[in-house]
């Protein structure tokens, strides 16, 4: 079923040589700094997000060590506040979303049969901004100036009169900076999936993972501005004395929460949806059949993306809002379980009807189903206002969202790492190491977070740096701490497994799993131009479909090889009919320069060096102007090229 | 927005695909529409915050003895900004027919109208700052944040228009297919216009209702 592409029949040797020449990126520092290749950028996203994951995970281990025993003094309250804030902020903003963007960057063009993203240089820019914004935020920790008010940064505690120092300025500016990257990435995903799909990949043949990424990208476009508005107002309040969240000047502290959760609840699905997309992508290879109920899953992805904007107040049931709003948001929060349930049942049906191949990726998928369902059940409990008011701000909440986020996002990501490692690195992973990693991580996860349901019901508040032993929280807290070390060990083994694969793994064939989507029709790792021949898609499972496979090996017409330049094919939005060939941009320093100028701007704003900030804005404007300046031959000439 | 807008017939096989007016929307168009969508949501959040804070505040609005906003300058600003969308459309139609003169004239007209708008905003600020500032109370905070943010967007739009004007003055390099960029800048400019109408209603008219 798989194809070998190094000698794709139908493509002449000189065609391949020309393609390689047009898309070549030599191994040099210059190429490293200027690359616009979506595969390299995707890998960078994955590695950088994993790095921030390790930092955030270590913060968590320190916290668990502190909480292992009552009244211990491993860290001071001030340090603890910074640790739990950076843990949450980094896990949500610097790990979960960028990690999934990393998968998306690497996979979306390969899955839809394109040679790159729609805006490759914007893509490179997005990565550099993500890297710089992440370093910007973490760099505050050694100075004791890290954000210290929780990842939700509630008012009035985020106001300068209650929280002096740079802490929350780092938060506001860091997230505004990072938001540029996330927005740019999201727009890029939407346009790529709309315009760059291979001929024949109509909307009903788009892989579920790509659907999930596109739905996520739409949610980013419409949810992130709320957070940006919030943070802009926060920064103005703190630095320039405005009164948005300050009641003494007529402001309102609840405005912060409304805007934060208008962003924050969709963000839960911004994290979970692409992870669910990974599950839908992994399952066919290990059940030997397509995922059941494709259309229903697509509809439920879209439904989740829409309904998630109507549930934010369930984070605010304890704030004293009008009763009517409780009823509405309670109902919406219950309704959103339906599309989530549809997907779960579709996957269960796929596994029941398929022939299971119990490799590591499938283990993580099964671990995901178990854990995510438990987290979903406690989620439905929160939709009941009375119950929510009882357990809110207790460890029960901590247990719930770690079940959802580790179960619903981290486990699918780990499944994805093992599944696509051969494609990304060209090497197979060690199965035994992978199994150990799974069982340790799975056991550790449940040992850590299940007891938190109990400590929460016993009344232990979250975010406290220590506690007394009288209420009987200490036994279960110790169990949680032991579990967290098991979990960390499991995750360490994942890392060991990846390093082992890169160093010692046996070379991977193009299609080790007999997967059903287009990325398996190219070499492992793919050539810089991805596909020697742009495939023509005839079904939902292109690499299982003889006609599609044939289209990549024979009958390679000039309009699908496009070897005359750095080109890819644009198709129509709905039914993917061929429209035109488009010249893709060359590598460039400008994305890096632009991101660097923005880093200078945000650092200058943080340190109140406003003249430097103004200077940086001018550099930003000049770079963008130069970036877009028409320097190539006039298009009319290209239009006549033979 | 890095789309080069280049329509190329890569090989004889796709020569038929290269038409004067491409069938589908180009990538740059989608990119700009999505960018405008996210920016529009940002303004929706800001204007929503305005009404939220206003109704949480109480019946007296603006508070603290500040007069209701005067309408003369804002209406003048509207009279300048809203019609400024027309010369952009005119310029875009012009370059589609390869008429660079119309492109330049249209862009220049928009540039003048946009700069007039910013000058009027400066006059408005100079008058208002005598009575209240950003730090006076939450009304001042909202007033200056929202109008200031919009002014910033006008500036960004004018930068785009100015860039296009400069690029079109550099002869030869601004082919007829570059009209995609004019169209993208036009979308942004229409958006800046539309947001202004929402701001006119929210900031200047709604306190008088």
UniProtKB/TrEMBL annotation, chain A:
Q: Which EC number(s) does the record attach to this protein?
A: 7.1.1.9
Location(s) in or outside the cell:
Cell membrane; Membrane
Main localisation: membrane
Q: Where is the Cytochrome oxidase subunit I profile domain?
A: 32-538
**What keywords are annotated for this sequence in UniProt?**
Cell membrane, Copper, Electron transport, Heme, Iron, Membrane, Metal-binding, Respiratory chain, Translocase, Transmembrane, Transmembrane helix, Transport
- Provide the topology term for how it sits in the membrane: Multi-pass membrane protein
- Which reaction is the catalytic activity of this chain? 4 Fe(II)-[cytochrome c] + O2 + 8 H(+)(in) = 4 Fe(III)-[cytochrome c] + 2 H2O + 4 H(+)(out)
Q: Which NCBIfam families match?
A: CtaD_CoxA
The UniProt entry's sequence similarity note says:
Belongs to the heme-copper respiratory oxidase family.
Its recorded name reads: Cytochrome c oxidase subunit 1
From TrEMBL, chain B:
Which keywords label this protein? Answer: Cell membrane, Membrane, Transmembrane, Transmembrane helix
Put simply, this protein is called cytochrome-c oxidase
Q: Which InterPro entries match?
A: Cyt_c/ubiquinol_Oxase_su3, Cyt_c_oxidase-like_su3, Cyt_c_oxidase_su3-like_sf, Cyt_c_oxidase_su3_a-hlx
Give yes or no: UniProt keyword Membrane.
yes
Family under the similarity heading: Belongs to the cytochrome c oxidase subunit 3 family.
The keyword Transmembrane helix is annotated on this UniProt entry: yes
The record's subcellular locations are:
Cell membrane
Organism superkingdom: Bacteria
UniProt EC number: 7.1.1.9
Q: Which CDD domains match?
A: Heme_Cu_Oxidase_III_like
- What class does this enzyme belong to in the EC scheme? translocase
How does the entry describe its membrane topology?
Multi-pass membrane protein
């Amino acid at each position: 079923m798989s194809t070998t592409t190094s000698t794709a029949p139908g493509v002449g040797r000189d065609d391949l040589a020309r393609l390689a020449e047009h898309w070549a990126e030599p191994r040099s520092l210059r190429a490293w700094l200027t690359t616009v290749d979506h595969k390299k950028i995707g890998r960078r996203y994955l590695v950088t997000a994993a790095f921030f994951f390790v930092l955030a995970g270590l913060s968590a281990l320190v916290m668990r060590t502190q909480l292992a025993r009552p009244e211990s003094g491993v860290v001071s309250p001030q340090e603890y506040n910074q640790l739990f804030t950076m843990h949450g902020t980094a896990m949500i903003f610097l790990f979960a979303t960028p990690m999934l963007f990393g998968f998306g960057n690497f996979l979306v063009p390969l899955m839809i049969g394109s040679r790159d993203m729609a805006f490759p240089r914007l893509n490179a820019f997005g990565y550099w901004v993500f890297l710089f914004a992440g370093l910007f935020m973490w760099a505050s920790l050694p100075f004791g100036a890290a954000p210290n008010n929780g990842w939700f940064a509630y008012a009035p505690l985020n106001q300068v009169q209650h929280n002096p120092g740079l802490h929350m300025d780092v938060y506001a500016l860091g997230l505004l900076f990072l938001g540029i990257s996330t927005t740019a990435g999201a727009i890029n995903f939407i346009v790529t999936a709309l315009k760059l799909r291979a001929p024949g990949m109509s909307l009903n043949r788009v892989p579920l993972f790509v659907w999930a990424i596109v739905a996520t990208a739409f949610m980013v476009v419409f949810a992130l501005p709320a957070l940006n508005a919030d943070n802009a107002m926060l920064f103005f309040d703190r630095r320039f004395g405005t009164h948005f969240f300050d009641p003494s000047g007529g402001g309102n502290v609840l405005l912060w929460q409304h805007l934060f959760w208008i962003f924050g609840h969709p963000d839960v699905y911004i994290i979970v949806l692409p992870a669910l997309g990974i599950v839908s992508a992994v399952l066919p290879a290990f059940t030997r059949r397509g995922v059941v109920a494709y259309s229903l899953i697509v509809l439920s992805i879209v439904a989740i993306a829409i309904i998630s904007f109507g549930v934010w107040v369930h984070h605010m049931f304890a704030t004293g809002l009008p009763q009517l709003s409780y009823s509405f948001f309670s109902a919406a929060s219950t309704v959103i379980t339906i599309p989530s349930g549809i997907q779960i049942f579709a996957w269960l049906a796929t596994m029941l009807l398929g022939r299971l191949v119990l490799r590591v990726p499938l283990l993580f998928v099964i671990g995901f189903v178990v854990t995510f369902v438990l987290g979903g059940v406690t989620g439905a409990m929160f939709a009941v206002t009375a119950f929510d008011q009882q357990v809110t701000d207790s460890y029960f909440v901590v247990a719930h969202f770690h079940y959802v986020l580790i179960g619903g996002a981290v486990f699918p990501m780990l499944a994805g790492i093992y599944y696509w490692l051969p494609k990304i690195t060209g090497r197979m992973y060690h199965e035994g190491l992978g199994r150990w990693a799974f069982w340790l991580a799975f056991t550790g996860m449940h040992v850590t977070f299940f007891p938190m349901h109990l400590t929460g019901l016993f009344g232990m508040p979250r975010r406290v740096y220590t506690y007394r032993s009288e209420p009987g929280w200490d036994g279960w807290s110790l169990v949680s701490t032991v579990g967290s070390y098991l979990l960390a060990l499991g995750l360490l083994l994942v890392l060991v497994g990846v390093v082992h694969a890169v160093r010692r793994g046996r070379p991977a064939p193009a299609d080790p799993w007999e997967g059903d989507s287009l990325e398996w029709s190219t070499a492992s790792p793919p050539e810089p131009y991805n596909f020697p021949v742009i495939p023509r898609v005839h079904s939902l499972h292109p690499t299982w479909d003889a006609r599609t496979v044939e289209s990549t090996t024979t009958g390679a017409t000039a309009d699908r090889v496009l070897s005359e330049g750095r080109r890819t094919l644009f198709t129509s939005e709905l039914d993917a009919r061929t429209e035109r060939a488009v010249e893709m941009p060359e590598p460039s320093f400008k994305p890096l320069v632009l991101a660097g100028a923005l880093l200078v701007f945000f650092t200058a704003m943080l340190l109140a060096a406003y003249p430097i900030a103004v200077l940086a804005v001018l550099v930003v404007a000049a770079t963008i102007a130069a970036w877009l300046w028409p320097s190539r031959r006039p298009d009319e000439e290209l239009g006549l090229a033979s | 927005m890095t789309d080069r807008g280049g329509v190329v017939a890569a090989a004889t096989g796709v020569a038929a695909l290269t038409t004067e007016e491409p069938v589908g929307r180009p990538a740059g168009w989608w990119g700009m529409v999505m960018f405008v969508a996210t920016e529009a949501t940002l303004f929706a959040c800001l204007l929503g915050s305005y009404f939220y804070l206003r109704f949480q505040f109480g019946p007296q609005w603006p508070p603290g003895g500040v007069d209701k906003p005067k309408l003369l300058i804002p209406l003048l600003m509207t009279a300048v900004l809203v019609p400024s969308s027309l010369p952009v459309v005119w310029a875009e139609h012009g370059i589609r027919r390869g008429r660079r003169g119309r492109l330049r004239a249209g862009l220049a007209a928009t540039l003048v109208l946009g700069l007039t708008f910013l000058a009027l905003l400066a006059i408005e600020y100079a008058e208002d700052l005598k009575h209240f500032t950003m730090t006076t109370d939450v009304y001042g905070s909202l007033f200056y944040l929202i109008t200031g943010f919009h002014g910033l967007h006008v500036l960004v739009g004018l930068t785009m228009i100015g860039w296009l004007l400069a690029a079109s003055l550099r002869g030869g390099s601004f082919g007829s297919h570059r009209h995609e960029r004019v169209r993208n800048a036009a979308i942004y400019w229409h958006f800046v216009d539309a947001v202004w109408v929402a701001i006119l209603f929210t900031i200047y008219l709604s306190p008088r209702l």
